[in-house]
Amino acid sequence: MSIQEKKELGKTGVDQFIESKTDNLQDLYITSGDRSSVIGSQNGLFPDFGHHVKDEMGGVWTHPIKLLDGYWLHVKETDDEQGFWLKEADRFHNYPFYNEHDYSLANHLEIVRRQFCPDGTEGVIVSYFVKNVGESDRQFDFSFLGRTELSPVWFSENIGFEDALDDGKLDEEKGVFIGNDSKNPWFVVFGGDQFFEKGIVDRTYFGPEKTVGKGISGFLTYQSISIKKGETTELNFYIAGSNESLESALESFARLKENRKSLFESKKQRYNDMLQTTNIKIPDKHLEKVFNWNKFHMDWLTMEVPAIGRGLAAGHPEYSWWFGCDNSYALQGNLPIGNLDLAKDTINLIHEVSKATNGNGRIIHEVTTYGAVSNKGNTQETPHFIKCVWDIFLWTGDLPFLENIYPTVKMGIHWLLEEMDPDRDLLPEGYGIIEIEGLNVELIDSAVYTYEALRVGALMAQIFQENKIADEYTALADKLKEVINNQLWIEDEQLYADAMATPEMVLGRIDLYIERARRDGAEKAAVEMEVMKEKMSKLEQNVQQPWLFKNWVINTPMETGLAPMEKAIPALNRMGTDEFTGEWGTYLSGMYQTAMMTISTGVQAVAECRYDRSDEALRYVNLIASTFNKRLPGSIYEMSPDYGCFVQAWTSYGLVTPLISYFFGIQPTAYWNEVTIRPRLPKSWNQAEVENVKIGTGERSNEVNVSILLGDTEDRYEISLKEGGWKLIIDLPLEHRSKVFVDDGEAEIASGQITINDASSHTVRVCK
């Protein structure tokens, strides 16, 4: 029986989740911890790639620095002169928290390479399981090669870091190789379970791949290792690093080596616990599987750098740092899967960096793991952040969290309506989510999220008894809602506009857009904009007009529920046609009809949910899920179906929010010890169950379970709360003649809702 066949036996829990591949193994993979990661090729090699740091985005990282370009194993029978390198694997296996490469070799060896990044440690454990499938006992020399590339994350040169040549040495007393950057306190240490017998340190020495950069190679040989016929030996190597000191790197190395088994088991247990949190059972088993893998993805993207903080990164491999815009979407999808503390940590990180960088309420666009801010923030990000803060408060009930950020909320609203709104029409100017060069006018997404910021800002002000501010924000929100629905709605199109601008402003940019469309082969888009250009030239040049560029953000009025029903339904219907929706999801642009993203599709799904169109929402959720496993087994790419970052945080918004917040309808207001259950299942589902949904943190911690069974004559809802003292509000899709029973008695229904004080476990029956 092969090593892999043995591994397939007796799988339970997280061990059941494995996705494998034997073709296109040149695609990338990641194994990730909160303090370290490995990014390489699924064939087991470490190609140079990347555009943020050219050719250096792969390898071994302990952010904010890279440690190694890669690592390789050389195998030689002791009486053989040459030996061979492990090069391209035959199969790649992706498990939720580690991955493996299988090698079936012609010289009667089977080798499995495993890489694993433990929690809370700046390092990686690389294990080789070598099986002798020959006819006799054998003896081998194994050599481990690591190629250093001690260098900082992208944009670090702008804050004073200069990457220099690496140096290296062998420490025979400790049995390790030590590498260091010659100008910075950046260190890497690696070695095995045993002490090496001999070693090489050489800048010009490479293994099976020659990588670019300023690194140096360490080559450690372990001699005369015996493997009996039919048996397997395990070789473990440890790679640790630090951007502060050699002592710190050595401490991490020792922790990895001394606690290898317990580190693996503790992470496995944490992942099993993750599976049990927000544990869904739905008729669509593929979607159920994708939903669970999405939980793992969020953990792959969780990064901690003590000098900056802990938070959810945007996407691997090119955006392995923290973003304001991305997280305002992604965290809404993380709250329902139990990542309540992660959501607070992430927002606190973005908040603190924004205060230090801007200090006026403006929220940054991105901050690297070395603390460098390359973009101080697009207009849309500030109100979107404010909305996200409120969502986190609703789920956690954490008043000190809200109290800490509330002053920034007030400054942010002031910044939007003063500095960014010079004409005082309540439509802030500047770039939005669609960062199109020159399109920094009054945009729909900035306007819609500013409305949301005012709406929730008023609710925050009420909590802090600032009633005058609450009234002011409410009045402004009502006025802005009217502006959006009157001025940015295009009746002839039955759609909201992308932008409000004078013809003169757009004419100054449109030739650039037309040229770019033709360069990208989007002739349809070029023709549409030529028509727009002709129309603009005949209009009064200094009078603002709404303009439709058909970018996906025109869905934001529906996503937030701002659009009235008579506008929302025709707009959603049109967005659902092949003008705006392709094979894999919602186009970024209905003009170009080319690229699709999980976020454009996810926003469409949430928009459908807002108007109780669960069947339509499920269509978009399934479009996202249909891209699962396309290139990286077990994952979903940023760009649909299979390019861009191979795992992206905001995908969670389109997968989780529709299912938990709308299909199951779990909507907590934890500060008040309340939760509303408003289930709206798609017609194709007649039963669904979710267990262990975490709501509230600290003294307000609770968990809710919801089970739904829909029948011909009776619908049955089982709802329970783990802790007492909470109010349960149940809002069901009732028919006019329905009779509703709660536990043993007929329900009292007020305004379409059932209220149970001090709720525990309850059965609701709807008799048709």
Automatic annotation (TrEMBL):
<dbReference type="InterPro" id="IPR012341">
    <property type="entry name" value="6hp_glycosidase-like_sf"/>
</dbReference>
<feature type="domain" description="Alpha-L-rhamnosidase six-hairpin glycosidase">
    <location>
        <begin position="352"/>
        <end position="526"/>
    </location>
</feature>
<dbReference type="Pfam" id="PF17389">
    <property type="entry name" value="Bac_rhamnosid6H"/>
</dbReference>
<protein>
    <recommendedName>
        <fullName>Alpha-L-rhamnosidase six-hairpin glycosidase domain-containing protein</fullName>
    </recommendedName>
</protein>
<dbReference type="InterPro" id="IPR008928">
    <property type="entry name" value="6-hairpin_glycosidase_sf"/>
</dbReference>
<dbReference type="InterPro" id="IPR035396">
    <property type="entry name" value="Bac_rhamnosid6H"/>
</dbReference>
